[in-house]
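Hello,

Following up on my earlier ticket. Below are the two sequence lines again, exactly as submitted.
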Amino acid sequence: MATKEGGGLDPIHQFEVKSLIDIQVGGLDLSFTNVALFMMVTTLAVIALMVLPTSRRALVPGRWQNVAEMCYEFSGNMLRDSAGAAGMRFFPLVFSLFMFILIANMIGMFPYFYTVTSQLIITVAFAMIVFLTVIIAGIRMHGMSFFKLFVPSGVPGYILPLVSLIEVISFLSRPISHSVRLFANMLAGHITLKVFAAFVVSLSALGAIGVVGAMLTLLMTIAITALEFLVAALQAYVFAILTCIYLNDAIHPHH
Amino acid sequence: MSNQLAQADHTPADTGAAATTPNVGHGGAHNVELPAAHGDQVIVPIQHGPGGAESLFPPFDVSAFPSHLFWIAISFGLLYFFVNRLIIPQVGGIIEDRRDRVASDLGEASRLTRETNEVIALYEKELADARQKAYAIAQERRDALKAEQDRQQAETEAQLASRIGEAEAQIAKRRDAALADVDGIASEAAGAIVLQLSGLTVDQATINAAVKRHQEA
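Thanks for your patience. The regenerated structure is below:
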């Protein structure tokens, strides 16, 4: 993660976007950047992980086929548990989101690799995909009665406007919390990691005491690296489970 | 915060890279106006101004958003397409096949268990039947033997009884004959005694009557 060039100790440097192939379309800058590269790598990695080990269609799975099947069944169960059997029509979306974010986070844990989920616009894009899917699918499946989502039953009439207002606000703020949670976790984790790693370098330049301090910081860095692996998997799970819960609203708006 | 600020101070060399075209935006141009303008807020200097291209912090660099969105659409769209067309049929098919196979194997196992139980039940029923039949045969045989024995016994007893009866009849006849002889002998002896004592010859019929009278008395 420590880059050797100019911004060697700058914790923000790792998030720098570099254009690899300049592409300008009608005044829009659609350059193929390092972010785009790692998104494509993520997509290819997910496809490779899921397709290659399962191509033999073994009845008794090998190690990698087991991994692929576990990912598949894990997301399937997650969706079925929160949105019921009717929710399984959204399985491709949930599975794609879960695997993309999980693999993107994991790829980001390699030094020098870009963490695409630390780009706010990317998590916002995913959150908006979910948000719009919920609204469109909800209206398609239930028509106007989808909006009963904002009118909880069993609430006394005089506070109903207030409750509905709160429901609407909470519904509209979902994509914000949904995207910022993932973004902020990945960003903060990688900055922390970088800061501690930079400490190792700067402390060890301070002589004997500094080296001792640097060793402690190195241990800390290792611990935080382990924690970041946990966060990487956990945040992918959190994003996916929230997706399932939101989709449940589209399928069963009467709660 | 403060140490990030301190490290940010290490980066002036990075600003050298700011020579890239400003409209591309995501060059190294992000450190141009670093600490002084934003104080401690190095990490989140969101710039909403019209010149978004000058953003310090890459995640908020609005000029890079079109590129990011475009490539998200391509990469995630590609993934979604492959998930729909390839991954779900393939992996889902494997899991489905396995579930079917396990279900059919379990069904087969339960069918075999049921058949085994049926065979066992049949075997036990036949065993019980055979045992009952054997008992019946034995009982019949025993009854037949007993009946035969009874019959023979009865026959033997009847034979013995008839022989005893015959023997008794014979004894009675012999005794009657003997008794009849005794009367004659008694009459003769009485006649002889009368003759010897009185010299009289008494009529045989009178003697017989006297003897008879004497016997009955």
